[in-house]
Amino acid sequence: MKTEEVTAEVAAKLIPIYIMGKKYDVPESLTIMKAMEYAGYKYIRGCGCRGGVCGACATVYRKPGDYKIYTGLACQTVVEPEMYLTQLPFYPANRAVYDFAELEGKPEDVFELYPELFRCVACNACTKVCPMDVEVLDYISALKRGDIKAAAEISFDCIQCGLCASRCFAEMPQYHIGQLARRLNGAYLTPRAEHLKTMVANIEAERFKEGLDSLKAMDTDTLKETYQDREMEPATAGEDWAPKDNTYL
Amino acid sequence: MKLSYYPGCTLKTKAKNLEVSALAAFDALGVEYEEMQRWNCCGAVFSLADDDLIHMVAPVRDLVRAKEAGSDTVVTLCSMCYNTLARANDLMKNDKEKRNTINDFMDEEPDYAGELRVVHFLNYLRDDIGWDKVKAAVKNPLTGMKLAPYYGCTLLRPKEVAIDSPDSPVLLNEFIEALGGEITDFAHANTCCGSYQVLGNPEAALKVSYDILTDASANGADALVLTCPLCDYNLGRRQDAMLKKYEGAKDMPVLYFTQLLAVALGLPVETCHFELNRNSTIELLQSRNLLEKVPA
Amino acid sequence: MPLIISRRTSDEKFREKVLELSGEEFMKCFQCGTCSGSCPMTEHLDAFPRKVMALLQLGQIDALNEINTPWVCASCHTCMVRCPRGVDITKVMEALRLTKLRQNVNHIEPSNLQPEEIIDLPQIAMVSGFRKMTS
User: Fold this and answer.
1) Residues in B touching A127 (Cβ below 8 Å)
2) Which residues of chain C does CATH 1.10.1060.10 include?
3) Which residue from A153, A155, A152, A119 is spatially nearest to A135, judged by alpha carbons?
């Protein structure tokens, strides 16, 4: 029996791209990462989550007739005709060695570990190159003036790809500095959940033991009944509503 | 006239005493201002190389921010920031080629051509508020306080941005008079404190600062009046090193002109953050009954 | 210091470089010495500003490489506001610093600052110090 060969009428259109200077024709709908694999490259570095959050596949590229430097994550960026690209899977960046427990959450912690912070000339190359649109200059500026909290908030989306450090005029490792700021903010500056401490103490003091034990001891029918008869906060209850049984409050 | 306030990197932490007292004085004198949004460090020193444009980017970016906010004037409290911003402003106003290159480079920002006016709070007080208005607002005249006006470098040099005569300045003198204080003139009033050489050649910076303080003290000053956080470090904090190194060195109270202003205007002592000043400064003010209580 | 002034010791390229970097006509200097009289740092200098200008005019790059003057200069601008020839000596000092710094050589090393120093220094000191003395 003859099998009919079905050829797809609309094959993916091939476009030329340049990977590290060498020309390849790749399907136009692919991401840079898929296009490189299509071209025969096998990833052992420069590839990670394939989902835009790990920072392994930082890519730098240019477009024809355009002097600008463009960046993107290879796993997220779709190829364009004549794209002229390379990956930057790693850029050496000075990472200070420190014992976090010895820090105090003060701006001087950052200054001491990264004095090169003060070499920043606000050229903004870091912000321009960030594939996650993080306002790198803004968080570096915040740290210079001692505002760890603002730096932590502004740098939140950083995925540590290293492109900022690769372009830095002052040779700073912005992403390491930002990470230190976020760690200091989390450990020392964000408000503590005091009610959590209280709840944990209550649990350890076996305050809920009796109630839980009695529930565990019930048979299925009584459990269902108890559940259906439970007291619920009415939808229209005011701020001052309280349950009749306040044993576990 | 919409006033854009540019703090500078040190004023939120180590020079809080300069900022908080100044902003309280702004309010008391009815000065409307807005802190610049998204400001970055101006670089503190103006780059002097003829071909260097990258170091202009930081101060120009701040001027752009002020312009974006609809301001026509930028006011600073730090003398070094004043000098850097004013010189960068002049460059953008007068040098067409450099202006175009810088604007082209900063393609993510709107173009800037030196449209704004840059002032230091001192010349703003003199020119826009006026000494009469300041005098009228004084509640605690600094009677009997012998104050040595220390100008430093960056308010007076180079001539293009000088807010007063480089060699015969009177501005701080007029300020002290308006607050009811007495002026102690001394030869080193506009001699450099050593500036950034506190990093490169700390012995040299220590010696020039020591010479300034000794001169003020020899002329009978009760305290030195400052306008710049780096001067405050060299002439204030480093006095501990001076007292160790130089026999006969005396502890001299130093304070910012804005702290004096806040005290004279009768503003709450918390606005002055005297905990960041030398103990001798606090003791001096207490002894003249200019502080109601010692700050914690 | 004894100087041998000849075509061999006079570096024309160096003089042109400093002229370019500073944009200042230092050949106009007529050695009046007002700058030396104004400089607050003279006590700590190998050569006063006037001498530096003389050495520069004679293209004495080797002698200039030995002296500490540009590295002790605090850019206070007192010399230039008083110079009767209108030479911006501060810019000349900056140019002399840059002939070294632009070879990617730092005069002070940020990473060598002691923790106690960094904690005590105001940000303005580090910003200005690094701008003037690092590449």
Assistant:
1) 108
2) 12-103
3) A155
